[in-house]
Amino acid sequence: MVSLNRGLHERPESSPTPPPKVIDVMIDAAVRNLLGQRRDDGHWCSELEGDTILESEYVLLLHFLGRGDDPRVAACCERLRSQQQSDGGWAIYPDGPTAPSVSVKAYLCLKLAGDDPQSARMADARRAILRAGGLRACNSYTRLYLSIFGLWSWRRSPAVPPELILLPRWFYFNLHEMSSWTRTIVVPLSVIWALRPSVPVDVTLDELHGDSGPGRSRRTLYESFWSAVFAGVNGLIKLVEVVGPVPRWRRRALEKAEEWLIAHVEGSDGLGAIFPAMVNAAIAFRCLGYEESHPLVQGQLRELERFEIEEAGEMRLQPCFSPVWDTALSVGALLAADMDGNEAPVQEALAWLLDREVTVAGDWREKSLQDAPGGWCFEYRNDLYPDCDDTAEVLLLLAAVRGRTGELETRRQAAAERGQRWLLGLQNPDGGWASFDRCSDKEVLTLIPFADHNAMIDPSTPDITARVINALLAHGHGPGDGPVRRATDYLLREQEKDGSWPGRWGANGIYGTWLALSALGPLTARTGGRAADRLSQACRRGRRWLLEAQNEDGGWGESLRSYDDPGFKGCGNSTASQTAWAMMGLIASYESQVWRGDADRIVSALDQGVAFLHERQREDGSWYDRDWTGVGFPRVFYLRYHGYAQYFPLEALAAYRNMTVSEPDAAGSQPDVH
């Protein structure tokens, strides 16, 4: 057996592969760093960073509550100033283009804070906003916020009628056809739109009225037809409100929305356990007549306060917490680095995760093929919204680790069975899995006027589907099992012409291709005949796309701009997390013997990736990614997971170290991969 870094393939002198002992040192340092981030009760939760729309909306919420003099307003505004870009605007990821909604809210907050409109900073901001289209280029949620403060006419804001909640399940358009996160945002927003709160402020935004709104992308005849239909319904709803008394079903809709809100804040750390839903819920409860001191309002405010991070005179807000995700991925990296599953960090994390299994029915039950609860959510507590991605990742861990005590082992086995059953109940008819719900894929809903947050539906995605396949395989399901076979067919259909797969929750082709290869590689190794050839061809195309995407510095990177411009696909500054994803995708392909003809290129690319990680590792064993690699809503909201640059590079290095090959013979036959 010959290690990959022992001369099997020559490397350029400019970037030598670290020798085995150095790689061991790198891994040991990364393990120590990761263990040092563990919380006292055995879990991990790294910071989750979003753009400045979070700070802006927090400031606007405090102004809505009459707390404009709260010290947190000044701290958030200091954050807004520090994040202003050189062109004067604010973006949704570092060095991105000026985003109208983010920039308008930041500009408004700074005006409310007393910043001189004639200052260079504010003048630059105005010019950037006007270049981006001004107020008319803002999305519907921003316009509704501006309406609260008298800065935009309610009449010109899109209708978000609370009557949506009354539509029956059999009706083609109903609340449960929307994605789970849209429901948590839209239900309180519909209350706000119907009751139209008014909190006048002593500033205006007249200077931000541009000559034209955002340019429209070319639409098909189908899209144009339904856009016109929805625009007509939007106008009709507003006309009914103007020319006659609001029908009595408006009162019933508001009552139903109130009941929905009260029920959905139970069992969660705030509505949906996400920032925008909590802000909207706090405002909606006040609109419904609840005093600020009421537990329902205080509950949302208290959870929002937990998102605060104050540092160097600035305050930033997290959009939510990611403890289940971070814990499962951290333990997975430690196990890959050869930590014994019986060691305390692993066993304590296992117990912590088992304590957070969801045991009640949530919104998913409306469309699931089975009723029994199970699964895990992303956050600390969000009982109504477990998700497929986290559940699959936890199931992978449960397959790799046995409980050290009889009780813990019994709980592990039972939770694993429930988790598998829950996941199988949410498989979509197309064979894939979405995030939270089944059959939330009606594209026509994305044409509703208030659906411009680009996340109205929750269709199947290759990244989640691939992770679920891996979880099912780890728990004994085979390639020929119906759910796995249908999921495999879905993945093959979703492969792009260039060989990559799109990433929904990570950027972008690198993320999706890594996960697809991680599933299809093992499937290929366990499949024979024409089916194996079909899988092997798909892996070869995906692998070659990854090889072509490697940067000259040995790393991989893909800009979030790739979601807007396909020309940026696979292109961007190298990051530790994306380099790790690409390496793990190549390793999965190589170890499954589907590399045919690419052996030298794969090994060379992996060597260069290791060299890149070696050069970028910091003294404490960590890595740092300035560029963001996480996705909330594509083209609208992105994320920087601070944990991604810690556990993913560790896992990739461990996989590289554990990967060994036999010398190929003179004829170039395939090596045996162990």
Task: Give the topology, please.
Blueprint: E1 2-3, H1 20-36, E2 48-49, H2 53-64, H3 71-83, H4 100-112, H5 120-131, H6 140-148, H7 180-195, H8 221-243, H9 248-265, H10 275-287, H11 295-306, E3 308-311, E4 314-317, H12 323-336, H13 344-355, H14 388-400, H15 406-424, H16 462-474, H17 482-494, H18 509-525, H19 529-549, H20 576-591, H21 599-616, E5 630-633, E6 637-641, H22 644-658, E7 660-661
Antiparallel strand pairs: 1-7, 2-6, 3-4, 5-6
Helix pairs in contact: 1-22, 2-3, 2-4, 2-10, 4-5, 7-9, 7-10, 10-11, 12-13, 12-14, 12-22, 14-15, 14-16, 16-17, 16-18, 18-19, 18-20, 19-20, 20-21, 20-22
**Percent helix among the residues?**
40-55%
Strand content: under 5%
Order of helices and strands: EHEHHHHHHHHHHEEHHHHHHHHHHEEHE
The CATH class assignment of the domain at 51-317 is Mainly Alpha
Number of helices: 22
Radius of gyration: 26 Å
CATH architecture of the domain at 51-317: Alpha/alpha barrel
Strand order of the largest sheet: 2-6-5
Quaternary class? single chain
Q: Count every beta strand, where a strand is a DSSP E run of 2 or more residues.
A: 7
What is the molecular shape?
Answer: globular
What structural class do the secondary elements suggest? mainly alpha
Average residue-wise pLDDT:
90
| Spans where pLDDT lies below 50 across 5 or more residues | 1-14, 661-674
Distance between the termini: 9 Å
Largest sheet: 3 strands, antiparallel
